[in-house]
Structure formats: C-alpha cells, structure tokens
C-alpha cells in the first residue's frame, strides 16, 4: 500500500466494509501485501478514508476466507496463501455450481432463460471493450442468476458461501491474458445447455468451467509468486 492512500470506489450496493475487503483481498492475492504483514485498523482506516468499523468488519471476513490471520493480543496479519486449501475449495465449488446449472436446466422458465441470455450478451460487450473490472461484476451476476434458477435455496446459500471464500481468487484470474474472452465462451456453452433443458450437459459444462477457473487462479498466483512456482 502507498502511504498516501486511495479513494474507495463503491460498486452498486456495496458497503464500505465490502469495498475495503475487496481492495485488501486484491492486494493480498497479488502479493502487494506479503504474508506476515501486520494490518493495523487505524492505519488502514486512514489509507482507505473510512472509520475503523468497516475495516474491522473487512478483516473479520478476510479471516473467514483464510486471507488474514488473527493472533490473540497481537492483531491481524496477512496469512500465508495455501494453494492446497484454495484448490480444495474450488473442487467443492465445481460440484455445487454443477448442481446449480443442472437444476437450472430443469427448472428455469422462459423468462429466467431470457434474462440469463441477456446477461450473457452483456458480457460479450465487456469482452470487446476489454473491461476486466466490469467483467468481474458481470461474472458474479451471471453465476448468481444460475444459482437462483436452480430453485433450491439451500443449494444457493451453500454455493454463495463457498464462492465468497474464493472470491478474491476468482476476481484475480481475469488479470490473465485472454481469460475474460475464454470465460465468456465457457459461459455461452452453459447457457445453451440450460436453454435446451439438458441438465446433464449443463452440469458437466459448469463443473468444467469452474475447474478451469481454478487452474487460471492457480496460474495467476504462481505468476505473482504468491505461491511457489
């Protein structure tokens, strides 16, 4: 982090704590904040131009995600990123998202399918513009539309939970060359399978997509030397 701080840009509906978490997680995953770095609430508040309350909330969430380690009587520190833990979570998420896509193929009505197609089309414009920042938000919208389309609240909540724990890694993958274009193609295949009502194919394609995301996230971390090459 620079000593001058930054001005937080809140996404639509995002809280200050959410924005602080997003910025900190990006700096941890990119290696700008190295393992063992102490995270002082007061200094972070000054850096981001917010009070200590959203900083405290962000650090708490980052600890749950495994990016921050809280040490009794000593405070919060940047945790060592565990490639094994990250890959384990992605494997689990691939299964959950595959289930969501399969159920969505069976249960989505014409209106929900049309909305999913609209979201997919919007992503293509972002790829053409090479707008990686906007594509990250689009990617979340796309996947959450499928979680909702699955028509199973318990499955949706479980998938959202594991997704939050790897959100920083999923966001980072889009900094790899050609990744947003490849992601758009992978999404398109899933949309076609859902539109056809082919649950088996939708499950397979979504699972394959998430495992590709896992490989891209791992490649990014190795490129940034956050995990060993």
Q: What do you see in this structure?
A:
It contains ten helices and three strands; from the N terminus they run H-E-H-H-E-E-H-H-H-H-H-H-H. It is mainly alpha-helical. The chain folds into two domains: 16-78, Arc Repressor Mutant, subunit A; 83-223, GntR ligand-binding domain-like (Four Helix Bundle (Hemerythrin (Met), subunit A), Up-down Bundle). Strand 2 and strand 3 (75-78) form a beta hairpin. It is elongated, with a radius of gyration of 18 Å. The chain starts with 15 loop residues before the first helix and ends in a 6-residue tail after the last helix.
Mean pLDDT: 91
Provide the CATH top-level class of the largest domain: Mainly Alpha
CATH architectural group of the largest domain = Up-down Bundle
Low-confidence stretches: none
Helix content: 55-70%
Distance between the termini: 24 Å
SS summary, helix count: 10
The CATH topology annotation of the largest domain reads as Four Helix Bundle (Hemerythrin (Met), subunit A)
Rounded radius of gyration (Å):
18 Å
* Helix and strand run: HEHHEEHHHHHHH
Within CATH, the superfamily of the largest domain carries the name GntR ligand-binding domain-like
Structural class, please?
A: mainly alpha
* Shape designation: elongated
Strand content: under 5%
For the record, the count of structural domains works out to 2
Describe the sheet with the most strands: 3 strands, antiparallel
Number of separate strands = 3
Q: Strand order within the widest sheet?
A: 1-3-2
